[in-house]
Amino acid sequence: MRLTVMSDYAMRLLMYVAQHPGRLCTISEVARAYAISEAHLMKITHQLALAGWLETVRGKGGGMRLATHPDQVNLGAVVRSIEPDFAIVECLSGNTVCQLSNTCQLTGIMNGALQSFMSYLNRYTLADLLTQGMGGETAQTVSFHQRPTVAPSGRPAIT
Questions:
Q1: Residue 51 lies in domain
Q2: Do 84 and 4 contact (CB within 8 A), yes or no?
Q3: Taking a C-beta distance cutoff of 8 angstroms, is the pair 14, 48 a contact?
Q4: Are 12 and 19 in contact (CB under 8 A)?
Q5: Which of 112, 120, 143, 154 lies 20 to 30 Å from 80 when distance is taken between CA atoms?
Q6: CATH code assigned at 156
Q7: C-alpha R_g of the chain
């Protein structure tokens, strides 16, 4: 499975904004910091705001900030809110009729791999990606607990 560049940029955007909690961040400053297209970041910012991860302020002096504390931003839920689908093989897309469906185990195995991948991401939050975790702990020493698997928008989750 390969995540789209949108997930990569979404994580970078959230990390940048989380590292500047006392102010609004702009798309142009994030674009400069990571050498990413402003047009791509605009689209991603919109998606993250719709999903409830970012708050945006329009107009002069506007920008974006996290909608919640970094330890409440579950990485698995962020990826699910950004990625268009998780059909790592065609038969998981639901758009095909497979002639081998009665005898093939591929769908179940690939679905299990996807579930393991998402379960692993669910163990981490945005706080774990920052240089210093909450309470001054480094990311390597933070103890991880299972996080909610639904975005603040209430969008269905793959767990």
A1: 1-159
A2: yes
A3: yes
A4: no
A5: 143
A6: 1.10.10.10
A7: 18
pTM over 0.90: no
Strand partners for 112: none
Place of tokens 């402003």: 38
Residue 150 · residue 157 · CB < 8 Å? yes
Q: What are phi and psi of 63, to 5 degrees?
A: 165, -150
Is 54 within 8 Å of 67 (Cβ atoms)? yes
- Backbone φ, ψ for residue 54 (5° rounding): -120, 150
Supply angle C-alpha 78, 68, 140, rounded to 5. Answer: 65
At residue 111, the pLDDT reads 83
Which residue type occupies 69?
H
Separation CA 49–CA 78 (nearest Å): 11
Residue 122 token pair: 């669910």
Structurally, how many domains does the chain consist of? 1
Q: Do 139 and 18 form a contact (C-beta atoms < 8 A)?
A: no
* Cα–Cα dist 111/98, whole Å: 16
**pLDDT tens track for 58-104:** 988 899 999 999 999 999 999 999 988 777 766 666 666 666 666 67
